[in-house]
Each structure stands twice: as C-alpha cells, then as structure tokens.
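dumping this here before i forget
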Amino acid sequence: MNRRFKYGKTWLLAATALWVTNVRAQQSSGGATTPHQRTPQLYNLSVQEAVAFAEKNNVQVKNALLDYRLQEETNRNITSAAYPQLSGSLGTTYNPKIPVQTFPNFIGMATYQVLTQEGVKNGSGQPIQMPADFGYITAGFGTKWNASGAISLSQILFDGQVFVGLQARRTSLNYARSNAEVTKETIKANVYKVYYQLVVSQTQMQQIDANIERTTKLLSDTREIFKNGFAENLDVNRLSVQLANLETQKLTTQRNIDNGYFGLKLLMGMPVSDSIVLTTKITDDQIRDAAPLDDNYQYGDRKEYQALTAANALNEYNIKRYKYSYLPTANLNSTYSKQAFRGQFDFFGKGDWYSIWSIGLTVNVPIFDGFARASNLAKARIQQQQTQNQLDNLKISIDNDVQQARNTFGAAITTLSSQRKNMDLAAEVYDQSKKKYEAGLGSTSDITTAQTDLVTAQTSYVSALYDAIVAKIDFLKAIGKLP
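structure:
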C-alpha cells in the first residue's frame, strides 16, 4: 500500500484531531457546557454551506469581525473630538477656619495723612507726626460656606491632526475589513481542504470495502478448492493475511475519517457533539474544471494585497497628520457660572447668587519642541517606505505563488489521469487473473499479486485525487478567485 497518502496526507486530520482533544480537555477542566447538556444537531452540508457555516461561527473570523466593530467605535471616538464639548459642575466648600491674610496697615497711613493735613495736634499740643512704620493688619476674608455651579463649553476651531483623523476614518475601516477578509480566506481554504479530504477518504473507504468483499469471496472459493484438493493451504493463508491487512487498513482509514470530522467541525466552529453529512461529491472532471491556466490575474484580487494597500494609505494619512502638527491650533472656550457665599448652609433659601461668564479664544503656536515633530514625521515616512517595500515584495510573492500553483496543478492533473488509467488497468488485470484462477489456469500467487497491485493503484489514485484537489484550491487562492 502507498504509505505516502496514508501517512503524508492524513497529517491535517491527525493534527486537527489532536487540537480537538486539547480543546475538549480544557473545556472540561474549565467547567464548560458538556455535550449532553444540549441536543446534538445533524447538518447536511455542501462544501459551500460548510464554508458559509465557518464564516459565521469560526472564532477567528468572529474576532476579526469584532475588530472591524472596534474600528467603528474608534472612528466614533475620533469624530467626537471635532464636536463641541459641554460639561457641567456643581460644588460647595465649607471653611471651618476662614483663610487669614496679612497686609500693610493702609488704614492707619490714610488716617495719619488726614490728621497731618488738617493740622491736628496731639495731647501735648504738638502737631501729629506721621509714624515711620504703620505695621500690618491681619484679617480673615470669606464666608463659612461657598457654593458654585458652572457650565463649560469648548470647541476645536482648527486642529490639523484631528481633521486628518476624520479623513482617515473610511480607510481605517477598509483596513479592518481587509484583515477580516484575509482571516476568512485562510479559514475558507482550510475548510475546503478538510472537507474534500473527507470526501476522498470516503472514496478510499468504498474501494477498501470492495477489496474486502472480493478478497472474502476469493478466500471462500479457495477454501472450497482446498477442500477438494486443488489448492494448497499456503494459498488460503496468503489470502487470509491479505484480508487481515485490508481489515486493518479499513480500521485505520475509518479512524482518520472520524478524526477528520472532528477537525472539520472545529474549523467550522461547530460543537463536537453535532453530526455532519457531506453532500458534495468530487470527480476527476470537476477537479479539471478550474480557472484558466493563464496570466490573467490581478494583484488586487488577493486579500493580503488589499489589506497591505489599506495599510499603506493609513501611513500616508499618518505623514499628513505629523505635517499638520506644525500648524497652530485654535480652540474656543466659554464658561458660565453662579456663585454664592453664606455664613451657614442655606443656599436654597434667601440670598444672592452672583453670575460669572467668560468667553476665550486660545491659539497655540508650536515654536520649538526639541525636534520631536520632525522625528515623528521622519518615522512616519520610514514606516510608509517599509509598507511600500512589503507591497513590492508581495507582488513578487504573488507572481511566485501563481506560477508554482499553476505548475503544481497542471502536474497534479496529469498525475491524476495517469493514476486513474493505472487503477483501471490494475482492476482489469485482477479480473483476468481471477478468471484464469477460477478456470484453473492461474495460481493463487498470481491473483494475490494482482490484488496487491490493485490496492496499491487504488491508494495511489486516492492520493493523486487529493493532491489535485489541494492543488486546485491553492491555485484558486493564489489568483484570488477562491469561491
């Protein structure tokens, strides 16, 4: 039997099955909902329906879509900076000890000035003289209770960085959407591959069942011939070993198919307890019916190119933002407030409230910031150059992907046709060997060899069939036409 398909092509099934085992163990340890707590569902799904299910339920896709919603909220936050900002405040202050201030004794100075000007005399009959130092007065100012209420309004009149942020909102959404599409494209390709691997494995299972049926019939006939003395016990033993190998192959294939279903459900975001019936079949002709093998493809059809293009556009806005940081900013501010002063807490009773209203315009002119703006602008330009380099490299990578995928797909189709013919020829050889054996003209060794060759040819055909499917998927993904 061709071990390349048995061991080389089942890695995806085995890996996803191991992943499922780890996830289920973590869910069990974390107290997650167990399968018996919900009613298992049965789904009859075509490959397109399986992809649509994965796009709706796969956790990576859902998180990518949530990233898009996060960007929407980020855009709302950016927009809010351009709207008027209105706030209100209400507060009261109690002063157990009224603040005291000390200042020069201007009252005494003014009094002596009047007395000296009027020629007032002291008790000795001498004119009053102005003292050299009048000292200081200490007094408390204010009341025990103060209260205030205010409404403040601010509005950006001009801020280049805010305006650039408003302009970049649509591009930011495009970038988030493109990243989500990249994630969806990856999940879609994996679902296609696992789905079709299961379809191919079912084809292999049908071939194994047919081989078991033929070998069982041949073993029964050989036993009868042996009883009649026209065959050796060695012939019976050979066929028994061959039948046991086929039974083992069937068990291994069935285990891989079961694991593959676990992996497919995990990719689709489907509970493991649910069941899937695959309704899409695959034929050689369907595989050959791929996109034309020519150079008619566009870089923009690739999701990765779309995402990187959006990132490059964001870098351009980033450069523009730092350029605008050299411009002045203008803000309008206004505050209207009411204040009251009381000896006790009776603000809601009688008493005056004094109004204060201010309107201000602030213009900030950047003069020198230690070259911080120049550094930020230089970094933004370097980042744009890096992204442009990635775009140029991605074009080369896409060209390489398309060429390799085209060559691989063409070779896979050729190999598939060859293996199909080889399998049909091996089946014909087996039928002829069986007829000769039944007619007594052939040996058990001949028919055993023919049976072994047929199993090998079938396994090679199944391997070539899956190789061709994967090659087709990779080619369609390379040209950005994966349905």
